[in-house]
Each structure stands twice: as structure tokens, then as C-alpha cells.
Amino acid sequence: MAKVLVVEDDTALQRMISDWLTLEHYSLELAGDGKDALEKLKFYQYDVVILDWQLPGMSGIEVIREYRSAGGKTPVLMLTGKSTIPDKEEGFDSGVDDYLTKPFHMKELSARLRALLRRPTTLVTEVLEYGALHMDRRTHVVLIHGKAVDLKPTEYALLEFLMRHPGQVFAAEVLLDRVWSSQSDSSVDALTTCIKRLRKKISVEGQESIIKTVYGVGYKLEL
């Protein structure tokens, strides 16, 4: 399941894209402005970014320039009403990988995403390993000491996030924002319950859980 960051300030269009890509079985994160997008890009490696050109406060061009200057390699599909050659030159020179001019059909959006996802230049690691944990993002298979673990979508997303940042402590609010950002059941209680279930599922008898609680601060993954 490809992870897509959708950066669009038009709430109606954002919802249309979100609903369509959810039906297409993409995993989504949403951002309504450039600063929020850059903050999310610092914490998570997406498979592709859908980025609107005209955003409040910070334009899509400014976002892509800053992201590329920091070493970001994820493919970016720019949404824009601009269609002149100079505009497209500016976008491509800034680091955009492809354009989709508004208005557009959702099927064309899907086709362009599939094309970008076929490119071999992404930095996304398909297989994550940490200690006895093994996660294959292509098949969604999670193994502990070679034994398959059955995880719910939120449990999987939380574990993936922690495996991508081993040793780092994250406050509950940060985990809720990164994992539950598009869901309605976002709460500290929901996070606590999810962590309890996840610990139980990946625990090894006689060993301390690798999901550590740092009291008063948050949670981290540590052997």
C-alpha cells in the first residue's frame, strides 16, 4: 500500500482526492499548507507527494525547493491551474516530477501516480528490520522471529512509524498526528489501547517489550 501525502488547501478538492485514493487503496496523509507539508516530510518518507502550486503562506514551488535542498527524493506530482511553458519550466527546475493541470479527471490522477510509483529512484525502504522484527511494506507481512503477526491497519501504521525512527522518543500528540491524522478516533486513550495491543502481539515470552514508555514524555522503539 503506497503512502501518499496530499497537500491541497481547497477542502472540497482535498476531500475528492482523498475519497478517490482511499477507494484506490492508497494510504493517505493530508496537509492544508506548505509549512504543514514540510513538517510531515521531516517525520515520514512518503512514496509520492501530491502538491498544489498555490498554497497559503508558502507556495508549492517554495515547498519543493526547500524539500529538494534538504535532500528529499520522493516523487512530486504538482497540481496547478498554470499551463504555460515558462510555468512548467519553473516547476520542473524546482524539482517537480510531473504536472496535472486543473481541472482533471481522477482516473488521470491515478494513472500519473502509478507512473511515478514505478520509478526506481524513490528512497522508500520496502523492508524494515529491527531486532527480531521484520516488516515488508510490499506485502504488509510482519514477522517476529520468523512468525507472522496479524496487525490491524492502525497497529501496522504505528509500528511502521516507530520502526522508521528507532530510539527516538515521540510524545502521544505526535504519534496521534502522524498515525491517526485522517481518522476520527484520535485520542490518547486510542493510542494507549493500540500500544497495549501491539505490545502483546509482538512480545516475546520472557523478554521486555521493545516499545518503551518514557514516563512523562512519550514512547519509543528500543531493544
Q: Percent helix among the residues?
A: 40-55%
Order of helices and strands: EHEHEHEHEHEEEEHHHEE
* CATH superfamily caption of the largest domain: Response regulator
CATH topology of the largest domain: Rossmann fold
Shape: elongated
Content-based structural category: alpha/beta
Strand order of the largest sheet: 2-1-3-4-5
CATH class of the largest domain: Alpha Beta
CATH architecture of the largest domain: 3-Layer(aba) Sandwich
Distance separating the two termini: 27 Å
Average pLDDT for all residues: 85
Note the main sheet: 5 strands, parallel
Number of strands: 11
Q: What is shown here, in short?
A:
With about 220 residues, this protein is an alpha/beta fold. Helix content is about 40%, strand content about 20%.
Can you walk me through this structure?
This protein starts with a strand and ends with a strand. It has two domains: 3-117, Response regulator (Rossmann fold), CATH 3.40.50.2300; 127-221, Winged helix-like DNA-binding domain superfamily/Winged helix DNA-binding domain (Arc Repressor Mutant, subunit A, Orthogonal Bundle). The strands form three sheets. A five-stranded parallel beta sheet has the order 2-1-3-4-5, sandwiched between helices. The protein has a four-stranded antiparallel beta sheet with strand order 6-7-8-9, with helices on one face. Helices cover 40% and strands 21% of the residues. It is built from eight helices and eleven strands. The longest helix has 15 residues, at 188-202. It has 223 residues and is of the alpha/beta class. The chain is elongated, with a radius of gyration of 19 Å. A hairpin with a 3-residue loop joins strand 10 (211-214) and strand 11 (218-221). The model has no long low-confidence stretch (mean pLDDT 85).
